[in-house]
Design brief:
Blueprint (H helix, E strand, L loop, with lengths): L1 H26 L41 E4 L4 E5 L5 E5 L16 E6 L4 E11 L7 E5 L2 E2 L5 E2 L4 E6 L2 E4 L6 E2 L3 E7 L2 E16 L2 E13 L9 E10 L7 E6 L15 E7 L9 E7 H5 L5 E6 L8 E8 L3 E7 L11 E8 L10 E7 L10 E12 L2 H6 L1 H6 L3 H4 L8 H18 L2 H48 L3 H15 L7 H23 L23 E7 L3 E4 L1 H15 L12 H25 L4 H30 L24 H26 L1
Helix pairs in contact: 1-9, 1-11, 6-7, 6-9, 7-8, 7-9, 7-12, 8-13, 9-12, 10-11, 10-12
């Protein structure tokens, strides 16, 4: 009975384990490392600042060549706005092909707005929105507000001049037309397009501060794997007095929700631990949008500069989806890698409405630092990545590798499998696809590879299970006799039971081998699921000559006009086939023969266990119904090939039974009954020895306790 309970519990554990691995990464909140709080008594975190080069003579500020409309702000400050809202467009036209109009190799098309010097939209030139829609994928979009306002990405939210706060995200900046630029760097010359925004802040009729923001979009061929955008915000002190300056700006917003699952949009950020004055290891962290939306204050502090640990600085912060990201990497004032210009980073819900998450983004606040002297200027540069999460680029482009952008991919691998296994699965699938030109066929070949590698274990486990079942039919009555004889002496009962196990060559742990192939495949299932969910190369890839158009989505044999209860928006055939093939595979597995010595209770337990087997197929149907079609394709063919494998193994077992070889154990005459060499204790012998030692020490422990009393 104990063995039957063990097998039943293993089956239940397998179902629960499978369910947890499939749904836990989507249901459970991602752990977030605690961030250090800002030092007490400081309204804004303080830190180091950069140089104040590029000075202009005090009192000789050149007026901005724009017609301005004054807007009154705090502390008597006035923002000199432009007359109307305007947009500028940089980059390739997504409708003109991958490389854009006139063959210009831009990876994106940006629509810039002079409202807050922001990005209104960012469209990818290399990726379609959906299978059926030819429109290009729009990663960043404006978010409409109930009051008619509009939120935009990367807007300059405000500037703090001494103690006065001036809002800038709703102000109309002056903007120039799109210009071409050429720059010389370490990797050679770079050409591209740029747009410049400018706004002045006056006090008592005289300008005191001018802000200039420049976006530069370089030409980047697709083979480079780069999606770079450079932002530079320069603050000029036009006053005769020094001023302390703090800038506040936001990250990307309006990210699309491709799959209606929890945790499909999140904030990632990386902190550079630092090594002396150089760049150190970058540690990544993650926070799902939902965790920010459910907070009472609609804000979570993610990073704060600590004067007690000045070597730890922000490396980057990002808002992203499964396949795409908008990553901001603030640089030092001199343009170097480590972002010492940033004091805090927070995850914020801009509209404060927990029911909406499109407006959730990051908010970056710069350090206070020394006052900006009269006539001086200070530049806040940042590298921005807007594009797909491509593992090869993140690991081979020097800047991306140093900043550990790859964390944004690896973090999605979850905790139910091994990172190296997911990476190997992605590499193997991509390699097979390179030869087959079809990811669906690559998945089927992967099934054959896994089944071939696990076949010896599967075969041995099935043969061992049949052997154990037959032995247990003879063994169980003797165990019952021992229970009647030594029921009151548990130590003696354990000793005699171990002895009986050894005499009959029975190893209860051997039954686990029957379930071992399933447990070995579970991390592979999870790794494949995660590779489908995080491999940008598989997005929108079909299984040719079938109805499956996207292996990373549900197979959707038929799409309903409106969602149905429990089923959803489409009828998916693959999960049903998975359940059918899994049921057939279970039917072909060896089943215990009826034992005439079993009690009615034992017989009922055995029948209940056999009835539970079809329930596992039903549970798999429920678990995998809305999973990606690529994962269901893998499990379906794994069950199909497993069924064929079971037929072959059953035939092999039957042939061995007919020849009387099933119970033969090859051993020499001087070997032990269990087939082990003399002098080498078996697992059961070691257990028996431990039981004997425990029994011998029991009277001594009782005598010792009596003496202590």
């Amino acid at each position: 009975m104990a063995q039957k309970d063990t097998l039943r519990n293993l089956l239940i554990a397998a179902m629960l384990f499978c369910g947890v691995m499939m749904i836990a990464p989507r249901l459970l909140p991602t752990p977030r490392a605690p961030s250090p709080a800002a030092p007490a008594g400081q309204g804004e975190p303080r830190g180091e600042t950069g140089s104040t080069e590029d000075r202009i003579p005090t009192g000789e500020a050149t007026p901005a060549p724009y017609a301005s409309t004054p807007t009154s702000e705090q502390g008597g400050l006035i923002v000199m706005e432009a007359g109307d809202a305007q947009t500028r467009t940089m980059g390739a036209d997504p409708n003109d092909g991958i490389n854009g109009s006139a063959g210009a190799p831009y990876r994106m098309r940006l629509t810039l707005s002079n409202v807050g010097a922001s990005i209104e939209s960012a469209t990818m030139t290399d990726h379609a929105r959906t299978i059926k829609e030819p429109d290009r994928y729009q990663l960043l979009s404006p978010v409409m507000q109930p009051d008619g306002g509009m939120l935009r990405s990367l807007a300059i939210e405000k500037i703090t001049i001494d103690d006065a706060v001036v809002a800038l995200d709703d102000k109309l900046w002056h903007v120039k037309d799109v210009e071409t630029y050429s720059s010389q760097g370490e990797e050679g010359s770079t050409e591209g397009q740029q747009v410049e925004f400018q706004v002045e802040i006056h006090k008592n009729g005289a300008p005191i501060v001018r802000l200039t923001r420049t976006f530069r979009l370089p030409m980047q061929p697709r083979e480079l794997g780069r999606h770079d955008l450079r932002s530079e915000v320069t603050v000029h002190n036009l006053d005769h007095e020094p001023h302390r300056i703090v800038l506040t700006y936001r990250g990307g917003i309006g990210l699309p929700l491709d799959v209606k699952w929890r945790g499909e949009r999140f904030i990632d950020w990386g902190v550079d631990e630092g090594k002396g004055t150089g760049v150190g290891r970058v540690l990544g962290m993650r926070e799902p949008f939902e965790e920010i939306a459910r907070q009472d204050v609609q804000s979570i502090l993610l990073y704060s500069f600590m004067p007690s640990a000045p070597e730890a600085r922000l490396s980057w912060a990002a808002t992203g989806t499964r396949y795409f990201t908008c990553t901001i990497a603030p640089l030092d004032f001199d343009g170097k890698e480590r972002g010492s210009s940033v004091a805090t980073v927070s995850g914020v819900d801009l509209d404060g409405d927990t029911a909406t998450t499109d407006d959730i983004t990051i908010r970056l606040v710069t350090v206070v630092g020394p006052a900006l002297e009269a006539g001086a200027s200070r530049t806040y540069p940042a590298d921005i990545y807007i594009g797909e999460k491509e593992g090869t680029a993140f690991r081979h482009v020097p800047e991306y590798e140093r900043r550990n952008y790859y964390y944004q991919i690896a973090q999605s691998f979850g905790w139910c499998t091994f990172t190296w296994l997911v990476e190997f699965m992605i590499w193997l699938l991509n390699s097979l696809h390179a030869g087959l030109r079809d990811f669906g066929l690559a998945i089927i070949i992967l099934v054959l590879i896994v089944r071939t590698l696990l076949h010896p274990i599967t075969k041995y486990g099935q043969i061992n299970m049949v052997r154990m079942q037959q032995k247990m039919g003879e063994f169980t009555p003797k165990v019952e006799e021992l229970k009647k004889k030594y029921g009151k002496d548990k130590a003696r009962l354990q000793q005699e039971t171990m002895k009986l196990y050894r005499e009959h060559g029975v190893n209860p742990a051997g039954q686990i081998l029957g379930c071992l192939p399933m447990f070995l495949q579970m991390p592979i299932w999870v790794a494949l699921f995660l590779s489908l969910s995080n491999n940008i190369g598989m997005r929108h890839q079909p299984l040719h000559f079938t109805w499956i158009h996207d292996l990373t989505a549900q197979d959707a044999l038929y799409t309903f006009s409106s969602p149905l209860p429990l089923i959803g928006e489409s009828f998916n055939l693959l999960p049903l086939l998975v359940a059918v093939f899994m049921y057939l595979q279970q039917k072909l597995q060896p089943k215990p023969k009826p034992n005439p010595n079993m009690s009615d209770q034992q017989r009922q337990q055995q029948e209940m266990m056999q009835k539970m087997m079809p329930m596992m197929s039903i549970m798999m149907l429920i678990f995998f119904y809305k999973m990606p079609s690529g994962l269901n394709l893998y499990i379906m063919f794994s069950s199909l090939f497993g069924t064929l494998e079971q037929i072959h193994i059953r035939k092999h077992i039957k042939e061995r039974e007919e020849r009387g070889e099933l119970h033969k154990v090859s051993r020499k005459a001087n070997d032990s009954p269990t087939g082990r060499k003399p002098g080498k204790a078996s697992f059961m012998e070691r257990l028996q020895k431990m039981a004997e030692e425990a029994q011998k020490s029991q009277p001594r422990r009782q005598k010792k306790r009596g003496a202590q009393r």
